[in-house]
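User: Fold this one for me? It's Polyphosphate kinase.
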Amino acid sequence: MDFDKYCIDRPRHVRLADWKTDDKGKLTKEKAESQMEELRTRLMDLQERLYAENERSLLVILQARDAGGKDGTIKHVMSGLNPLGVGVVPFKVPSELEASHDFLWRIHQVAPKKGQVTIFNRSHYEDILVPTVHGLADKDTIDRRYKHIRHFEELLSDSGTRILKFYLHISKEEQKLRLQERLDDPEKHWKFNPGDLKERALWDEYTGVYERILSETSSGFAPWYVIPADRKWYRNFLVGSILVQALESMDLKYPKIAEGLDHITIE
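Assistant: Here's what I get for Polyphosphate kinase.
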């Protein structure tokens, strides 16, 4: 399957309207879900190789609007990974300590070490999104943050970290349905935040900022993937497939065994 149409691997002008939020490729739900178990098994094997090799790492960045499916993606795609080699980091409003440092300080602290897969649930891009939409930082500060992020991701890449960035692309109509579902189901009330409605009212403003982010921070070493996310099953299939493809391209190797092991007998 060709994933290039979802990939942005160089700076260029991006319009989110060019990607359908309800795309399903040429797959049926049944076929995609039948392949997910195989993808998860392959992902587990590749993660073990990454952990054993202990020379490189993988950073997965998930960005989306509210109810865009970040948690669901982690649950359904990465659930089979070995916890010894995986970390999930959610980013919320910076703490007092974090805010007293530069905006990338808290990000660098949790970047993956060698052999590790780290998943960012939101990321350093929040430090562009919210300040831009709500006018919390001036234009010069925001422009510098774009530059700092590009350099930061290049540093990680140069240090052996493979970076994959996923924008989970949902429609305003689908977001409405998911937010309403949280209100209608008592067991999902904990997921509902009235503040999400204020952010929803700024839909067009967030669209403009996301388009600039995708336009200016895409590169060969840190590509963005625009993932159609209205159909959860297709979202999961795409993310899982792209992760497997990326890890396979790294040609991960188990360490060479010590000499003489073939002569050892366990009594």
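One thing worth pointing out: DSSP finds ten helices and six strands in the chain.
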